[in-house]
Design a protein that fits this description.
The protein is mostly beta strands. The protein has an eight-stranded antiparallel beta barrel. The longest helix has 21 residues. It is elongated and about 55 Å long. The protein starts with a helix and ends with a strand.
Length: 212
C-alpha cells in the first residue's frame, strides 16, 4: 500500500470513529425552568405569547384564529401558585384568521361588533387545585358587552431568567365557551342539517410574562 493510500485509509478510519463517538455521546443535560414562583407582578411579553381560538366549520373542519394585540398582568401575592391573579385586555379588532373577508365579518355587528365593544377582558376570581403545576383558574370574561364566568385549565411551565436578566414566568391555558352566551349568535343553517359555525369555541393561551 502506498503512503498516500495508507494516509487516506487512516484518515477515513479516524473520521468514522469520530462520528461513531458523537453518535453515542450522551446528549447534554439542560436545566429545566424553575418551578419556584417569585412574588410580584408580571406583564405579558406579547412577542413570546399567543392568544388563540378555534371553532368547527361545517362540522367537518376547524377554523383557527388569534388576536394580535393584547395585554395582561399576572400577580403572585406569595410563592404559592394559589396566589395567582390575572387581568387581561384584548383588542377585539386585532382578530386574525388569515382571511381578510372573514376577519371583517367577525369585526362586524354579526359577531364582535368592535366599534361598540372594542375590547375583550378577563379578570380572575380564584384558583383551584394549585397543589402542583396544573390547576384551574376561575374568572369573569367580558365579550360583546356580556360578562360570564369562565374556568380555564392552566399549566404553569415555570420560572426562568432570560439573557438580559429578566425574570420570566410561562404558562399555557385553555377554556371552552359557548359564543351564544355572549350574544354572538350569527349562524346559517345547512341544507343537510346542522349549522355553518359551531357554538363551542376553544380558547388557548400561551403566555410568557416578565417580572416588573
Amino acid at each position: 500500500m502506498t503512503t498516500t493510500r495508507r494516509f487516506f485509509s487512516a484518515f477515513s478510519m479516524a473520521f468514522a470513529g469520530f462520528f461513531l463517538l458523537m453518535a453515542f455521546r450522551p446528549a447534554p443535560i439542560q436545566s429545566p425552568a424553575s418551578t419556584d414562583v417569585q412574588p410580584g407582578t408580571y406583564a405579558m411579553d406579547l412577542s413570546h405569547s399567543q392568544v388563540e381560538f378555534k371553532v368547527r366549520h361545517l362540522g367537518i373542519s376547524t377554523v383557527k384564529g388569534r388576536f394580535t394585540q393584547a395585554e395582561s398582568t399576572v400577580t403572585f401575592g406569595s410563592a404559592a401558585l394559589s396566589s395567582m391573579q390575572v387581568t387581561a385586555t384584548i383588542d377585539a379588532s386585532s382578530i386574525f384568521t388569515g382571511n381578510d373577508q372573514r376577519d371583517e365579518h367577525l369585526r362586524s355587528a354579526d359577531f364582535f361588533e368592535v366599534e361598540t365593544y372594542p375590547t375583550i377582558t378577563f379578570e380572575s376570581t380564584g384558583v383551584s387545585g394549585a397543589e402542583d403545576s396544573e390547576f384551574q383558574l376561575m374568572g369573569n370574561l367580558t365579550m360583546h358587552g356580556v360578562t360570564q364566568p369562565v374556568t380555564m385549565d392552566v399549566e404553569f411551565l415555570g420560572t426562568a431568567t432570560d439573557p438580559w436578566g429578566n425574570t420570566k414566568v410561562g404558562f399555557e391555558a385553555e377554556a371552552e365557551i359557548n359564543r351564544k352566551d355572549f350574544g354572538l349568535t350569527w349562524n346559517q343553517a345547512l341544507e343537510a342539517g346542522g349549522l355553518l359555525v359551531a357554538e363551542t369555541v376553544t380558547i388557548t393561551l400561551d403566555v410568557q410574562a416578565a417580572k416588573q
